[in-house]
User: Fold these one by one.
Assistant:
Number 1:
Amino acid sequence: MKILSEFFYLRKSDRKVILTLLCVIAIALVVIFLTGGENSESNALVAADSVPAKQNYRDSFRRQPYRDRTVYVRTKVVYRDTAFSRGKALVDVEHDSVVAHYQTKIKAGEHIVLNTADTTQLKMVPGIGSYFARKVVQYGQRLGGYVSIDQLDEIENFPLDAKDYLVIENAHPHKLNVNTLSLNDLKKHPYINFYQARAITDYRRLHGPLKSLQDLRLSKDFPPETIARLTPYVEY
């Protein structure tokens, strides 16, 4: 009461200044209170809206643009030509699917004739899939036919265990006439490179037709092992 009574004893101009200050302070407090309440309420709404209800998760996921979705896809790796042997390391369901993907394999003690087998028959050999089946057929065509199972070792990374299921029967390889073929035709064979083809044509030019590959034994390009490997594929 004392403060109030003293207030009325102030000069009129002083009372106006004090009242103006009090009004400004009051207005400022009201504005702060109102704006702060709205922000807190909006923040609460945003926070609530940003967390979808558990039961509506699938619907909200479908409404998202495709690029904003995170999709996890389960994948399975099948190794080239080794999936059959490595299938045992997979879980039962995956192992069964891998085995079903490949044709029935022949059993130990059963054999396939190498020179007459096509890719379908070769894929029945354990360890051989589509890739190596094609390689075996293609290399056999380049050779003119296989004369030994060990020639499969010349195919890069060929599975050695697969040789136990293959046999050679009545081999009749296609033969090259070394006295009539040109240098380009000779070097198409896997066992004859450019220098060996040139040695053959040079011998023919200088000495006449070859009677045997032994005629080339003095050439550094025809060591004994090369002559032995090439002999089943040449004629005179």
Number 2:
Amino acid sequence: MDKKIIFLDIDGTLLDEHDVIPESAKLACIMARKNGHSIYLCTGRSKAEIYDFIMDVGFDGIISAGGGYVEIGDKMLYHQKVSDESVLHMVSYFNEHNIDFYLESNGGLFASKNLLPHVELCIYGDLDNDPIAQERKNKHPHPFVSALILGEENLYHGDINKACFLENKEVLFEDIKKEFEGEFNIIQCTMPIFGQGSGELMVPDIHKASAIKVLISHLGISQKNTIAIGDGMNDAEMLEYCELGIAMGNAQKGLKLIADEITDSVNNDGIYNCFKKHSLI
């Protein structure tokens, strides 16, 4: 069979809800690459969030920041950044409306003043009053928290891929969308743990499919040899663009509706079973 290039989302696809990669998924990736297929991570995470334990599985490259950054091996193909004016706009708006947020760069995640306790509440629970939440934090510290750069007085950085904001129940998502319409691509609730009113602000006209198109053109690979696997609505463009678009069993309903097929969930050997079905392993 023709060698395939596989684009694999991270959260909810390669990693489960506890940031664990199932052993079957690791094995599937290793075996597929041994069989001559290429695998690229294709994620909304910025490079600073693609931790060593993920990369240690072995991949041919990454598409990160929802399509804003592309790397083949250890060489950058391109990097799209938020303009200085737009960084100023969103930082000022979020601060004015008491919305907790973080700015994503390849070097780290720049946290707003009150982000940390809000994030810890989302991840662990009530640390002040719940012993189980405290135990959860002590026994299973989340790598996302350690990636946050805290205490920055000035968040007007010039190396920003995108921004994520957490839900503030006093501010409607639709109001945020209206504020930044035309300036950013605005996606709602890409991280459900951060609330239905949370979201991402991304460089306009940049998404996973646009990055895949540039990458396969650079590599001289036909679109008919592409496979995309994901679980969230920020995977929609890549599932529609690639020859075969596969939704995880735990995927959002909207993604399942546009997928060519649905595999098992992340914790039920979804990646392995999918690779096996299509003779990648």
Number 3:
Amino acid sequence: MSLGPVAVAIAVAFLLVGLAYLANSGRGARPGREIPPNLAPFMVDEDLENKRLNKTLTAALFSSAFLAIALPLYFLTESGRQADFVELFEEEAVHIGEDIYLEQAPDNPEGFGCIACHGAEGVGGGTDFVDPRTGATVTWAAPSLNDVLYRYTDEEVRYWLIWGRPGSPMPAWGVEAGGPLNDQQLDFVIEYLHSIQIPQEEALANVETRVNEALATLSGAEAAITTAIAEQEAELSALLSAPDRLTWADDLAGDLEVVLAGAEAGLDSDLDGLSDDVETQINRISELAFANVGTDATPATQSAADRLVLELDHKNGFSTVDVIGEGVADRDAAIALLEEIQAQATALRPLSLNNAPLVAAATDAVANLEMSLADARFAVDFDEVATAGFGGDVAAAERAYGLYAAYCARCHTAGYSAGPAGTLEPGSGALGPSLRDGRSIVQFPDAQDHYDFILNGSVNGQAYGVNGIGRGWMPGFGAVLSEADLRLIVDFERSLQ
């Protein structure tokens, strides 16, 4: 604790004690005097100038001296207190920004769920998204945020937070664009992003991992699309069967309600409140529910498969075992079966009521995925790339593509974040301009200018290349990529035709 506040506190205490002393010293009774005080002559100088006055003046002198020393000391320590306050404010801002970043919960009502897409502490992740190119549901890749400030300034990050990224799952968050976060909340989020930035050495070390992942994605593209086609065909089949499954669910739920209403009628061998005949009927309904209602028609309830299968035993009142291995009373299991069938019906109802447009959309998605596989627009001929830009060095061409895919394709290759099924030719253009047909060479006749642009990124309002005007959208990669890797990216982009 600094000396300034202590000195002021002591001075104030000293002053209060002195005032109290003065106030009390004149309150004593004066026996024998009948003249009202306001009419009596006051004390002469000889009476006033006594030891008490000297003590009072001495105390005042020391008090003044103390204040003369304490106030400068307080002033000299003010900058330290201000610095401490700034640090405290930043810590609180980071905490509030983290609350906004996390999911909303009873203990965190301020959460907006950024973590759902960008991962814990901004490591990156993905989210389900209907790809507008194919109509299929894909896992859209969300970028890492724990290194974003090596590429963008605070104001550039603020722009993306305010306006989002149209055509992607990233919504507009700022009130200026119709989002829920005001300027101060955006400041808090940016402070939190500052707190989670990884060391630059770690960002540089991640390059190899990202390059290898990008190359692995390319080599597995056909298999990934084939899997996507199979999943989409299963979804289409489930949609086609949804009306029939809904009919089964409604009928079986009604039958089970009737059976449970007369559950105690008849012989009850295990005394569990369900007669033997009722248990047999429940088992039959369970088999029919599993076979005809199923869970493939309602992907959100696939974990319910086990709850549709009951094998009640007339001699055991706890025939079913729950997920933790404890027995469940047969009556409770039957009621849970009824609730599950009703839940399946609830999930199937909108699929049935809107069946025609949903089936049409799923059919188109299958056709688009099959077209993506047949066209293979995502493919890269490394021999051709090596010849065009790397003097025949295939290894250099592969690394250059890996770097481009890991750091540039999100903006400059259409559909890249949607995965192989939605990916078009490298450099086909998306949020950023197309780089094909030699456009990079047109924009940057001098390769060094091209390199400098990737190194530093764009600055809002500043010119670049030939007739280029920056908006601050293009990040600079000089803090996370080596010069050699940056030049590989330049050569790759200038080779695109």
